[in-house]
Fold this protein.
Amino acid sequence: MLLDDAQMRSVAVLAEFMEAEPGWQFVRSFSRKTLAFRKVRDKTLMWLGHMQPWSVNSPFNKAPGIFRKVRARISKILRGG
């Protein structure tokens, strides 16, 4: 799979996700704007959101201070509190 315009944040996030996902292997970069990945497994963890390496290792899961407070407040609001 080729990802073009890797310098754009949305594509960079997808590239970070694919690098962390065990079902994809980074192959090479073409002038740092186009990235090539190879699918190395028939099944990937994409449907198991709580087990995806990119999600589990996200900085927001270990967020200090304000991020943790905001996340807690949003969770409380969504629960009806």
Summary: Residues 9 and 47 are 23 Å apart (CA to CA). The first strand starts at residue 2 and ends at 4.
